[in-house]
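User: Quick sanity check before I run a bigger batch. Here is a single chain. Can you write out its predicted 3D structure?
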Amino acid sequence: MAYQRVEVLTGTERRRNYTPAEKVRMVEEAFCPGVVVTEAARRLGVHESLLYRWRGLMKASGTAVAEPSSFVAVTITPEPTVIDPPAVEPPEPLPPPAGPTTSPAILEVILPSGARLRLEGPVDPALAAAVVGALA
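Assistant: Done. Predicted structure follows.
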């Protein structure tokens, strides 16, 4: 196997060194509200993973990074003291619960011939037997 092309790279090292101030500036710019980190990284000429790494290192070391605040200032005032509360009448007793509601009885018979008989509600047993006998 023979190589047909050889490429020789000459020149200075491609790795850039950023000062801590430059890193802080880039991280603050990339993580402002409404900024897409990928677009900011492309604009700044660095890979987005560097921005995330620098931000993590800055958080771990305690370096101030302008983060959007997730808290809102709240003022708590004491409740006014009530000297004489108004008289409260006891609530009226609830009515007794209604008895169990019964749904009408349903009798459904499917005969071997395929006929279907459905009886709902109170039905005289003699009438039901006569109907089933007639259909059978």
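The beta strands are 106-110, 116-120.

User: Great, the batch can go ahead then.
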